[in-house]
Design a protein that fits this description.
Elements (H helix, E strand, L loop, with lengths): L6 E4 L8 H6 L3 E4 L6 H8 L4 E4 L7 H6 L5 E4 L9 H6 L3 E3 L6 H17 L1 H9 L17 E5 L3 H12 L3 E5 L11 E2 L3 H7 L2 E4 L13 H6 L4 E5 L8 H9 L3 E6 L23 E3 L8 H20 L21 E9 L4 H11 L4 E9 L2 E9 L5 H8 L3 E7 L1
Parallel strand pairs: 1-2, 1-3, 3-4, 4-5, 6-7, 6-9, 7-8, 9-10, 10-11, 11-12
Antiparallel strand pairs: 13-15, 13-16, 14-15
Helix pairs in contact: 5-7
The chain binds 1,4-dihydronicotinamide adenine dinucleotide.
């Protein structure tokens, strides 16, 4: 028996650096520029077993259920909110992403903004383009010796910490879990303390129930007078009206914002927010992680994950199905990949079917999360379809694949 040929539909102009790993794994590539929705998305997926998207393509439950051949969804980006992860898991469809490839890009932009805000670079630049020569040192400062408060000391926060210290800044940070300090950075045990001590506050937390409006009116009041705020994390984390008020009354000395509670879906839509048109505010269109370097590294990372899933069945770092790291299949053996409902007795049924067919098991791997289990069996080369047909007929079977 031979494995089925597989192909991938790539949407949203995913970087060409995704192609070498896919081609090497024998995955056929189809491309559609831009994004697609609902029925046109289902039609474009057709019989493809994989789809590669970025943040704009919404893989809803109805799309997932209609795409009957789909085995993997690859998000060539960080977030996976655009995919109904539970619906995908229920169908045994593995979802992959690239959680850290743009970390450095966000950290570098944050540093640029810290310096830009301290020197009024963006306002001065606008004035020059309008023909105004405003040569003055008033309100221009070095960042050396100033205190940077980092909220969320994860991948991005800790990189910002290293870069800021190299500029001579004092770095303090607050995280809800204990984190190892980089260099001379110092942990503070509350957001309150961080806000009271920092000349610049930069936010690098995820979007959670606890972080929603983390920076509200009260938090802004707790900031030092004239301190600056940077939000390159998620739009829901700052109450923009409260920030606008803080800027208006001069309590906040400047702000840089890359993410918004509601963002235009495409470049065709108009952008407007309460901070628009204010001086001392840098507004960017959610580009913190958008660099060529990040796109290349995301393309390489996600396509390698897809190749591993296609060639070996590996699900390492999948965000929704049990993670199993697998070696290459041995010459002369077949590999059966089986997603099933996590209930007692499934393995013994499978063992029984193999024993009745006189098929020897050479290796077995199993991982379960919640209601889903993933078992991988390396077995003698299957001479016909009998075993697979019996596996497919089991009530608990969700998805079955053969590597031969
Ligand atoms: P991460 O998961 O590595 O770090 C987040 C840190 O925040 C963790 O250490 C966590 O313990 C901490 N945290 C969670 N809740 C907290 C709270 N209430 N108070 C203090 N700390 C808390 O995440 P990473 O990769 O550093 O990303 C940070 C943020 O940046 C995320 O919101 C992500 O979506 C966003 N991001 C934005 C991009 C852009 O283009 N602007 C690009 C990439 C990421």
């Amino acid at each position: 028996m031979a494995s089925k040929k597989r192909d991938i539909l790539l949407l949203e102009n995913i970087h060409v650096e995704s192609e070498p790993a896919l081609q090497q794994a024998g995955i056929g590539i189809r491309r559609e520029g831009g994004t697609l929705e609902d029925q046109s998305l289902v039609e474009a997926i057709g019989q493809s077993s994989m789809i590669g998207i970025r943040s704009r393509t919404r893989m809803t439950e109805s799309v997932i259920n209609a795409a009957s051949n789909l085995e993997a969804i690859a998000c060539f980006c960080i977030g996976t909110n655009q995919v109904d992860l539970d619906a995908a898991a229920r169908k045994g469809i593995a979802v992959f992403n690239s959680p850290f490839c743009n970390t450095r890009s966000v950290a570098e932009m944050t540093i640029a903004e810290i310096i830009g805000l301290h020197r009024g670079l963006f306002d001065k630049n606008s004035a020059m383009h309008q023909g105004r020569w405003d040569k003055s040192a008033v309100d221009s400062h070095e960042v050396r010796g100033r205190t940077l408060g980092i909220v969320g000391y994860g991948h991005i926060g800790s990189q910002v910490s290293v870069l800021a210290e190299a500029l001579g800044m004092r770095v303090i940070y607050h995280d809800i879990i204990p984190k190892m300090a980089m260099g001379n950075a110092r942990a503070v045990d509350s957001l309150k303390k961080l806000l009271a001590e920092s000349d610049v506050v930069t936010l690098h937390v995820p979007e959670t129930a606890e972080t929603r409006n983390l920076i509200d009116k009260a938090a802004i009041k707790r900031m030092k007078s004239g301190a600056m705020l940077i939000n390159n994390s998620r739009g829901s984390i700052v109450d923009l009206d409260a920030l606008a008020q803080g800027l208006e009354d001069g309590h906040v000395g400047g702000a840089a914002v890359d993410v918004y509670p509601s963002e235009p879906r495409s470049g065709k839509d108009q952008f407007q927010c309460v901070l628009s048109g204010r001086p001392s505010v840098i507004l960017t269109p959610h580009i913190g992680g958008s660099t060529e370097e990040a796109q290349i590294s995301i393309a390489r990372e996600v396509s390698m994950k897809l190749a591993g899933f296609h060639e070996r069945g590996t699900t390492t770092s999948s965000v929704n199905v049990p993670e199993v790291e697998l070696p290459h299949r041995r010459e002369g053996q077949d590999r059966i990949l089986h997603f099933h409902h996590n209930v007692p007795g499934v393995l013994s049924t499978m063992h029984g079917i193999l024993a009745e067919g006189q098929v020897n098991i050479h290796a077995e791997y199993l991982q379960s999360t919640g209601e889903l289990s993933y078992v991988i069996l390396d077995v003698d080369h299957l001479q016909d379809d009998t075993v697979l047909q019996r596996f497919a007929a089991m009530d608990e079977t969700i998805r079955l694949r053969l590597l031969s």
